[in-house]
From TrEMBL:
This is ATP synthase subunit c. The gene is atpE. InterPro entries: ATP_synth_csu_bac/chlpt (IPR005953), ATP_synth_F0_csu (IPR000454), ATP_synth_F0_csu_DDCD_BS (IPR020537), ATP_synth_F0_csu_sf (IPR038662), ATPase_proteolipid_c-like_dom (IPR002379), F/V-ATP_Csub_sf (IPR035921). The keyword Ion transport applies. It comes from Prevotella bivia DNF00320. Residues 14-76 form the V-ATPase proteolipid subunit C-like domain.
Length: 80
């Protein structure tokens, strides 16, 4: 009975670790797309540089915030 309980805990920790990894990978892809699109837009319309930069920073902060939230939830699942 104890071995089944330990196996369930191990599977839960594995799932939490995979979830944290996927969150970080997704955030990296999202940040790359944001940066690439912003650079392309800046090269097409250099006069909009400041507006695009501000929008890019806000979007990147939101993506990182969601990724950090997901990683913290996964770490809490590992610890508890």
């Amino acid at each position: 009975m104890l071995s089944l309980l330990l196996a369930d805990v191990a599977i839960a920790k594995l799932g939490a670790a995979l979830g944290a990894g996927l969150a970080v990978i997704g955030a990296g892809i999202g940040l790359g797309k944001i940066g690439g699109s912003a650079m392309e837009a800046m090269s097409r319309q250099p006069e909009k540089l400041n507006d695009l930069r501000m929008s890019m920073i806000i979007a990147a902060a939101l993506v990182e915030g969601v990724a950090l939230f997901a990683v913290i939830i996964a770490l809490l699942a590992i610890v508890m």
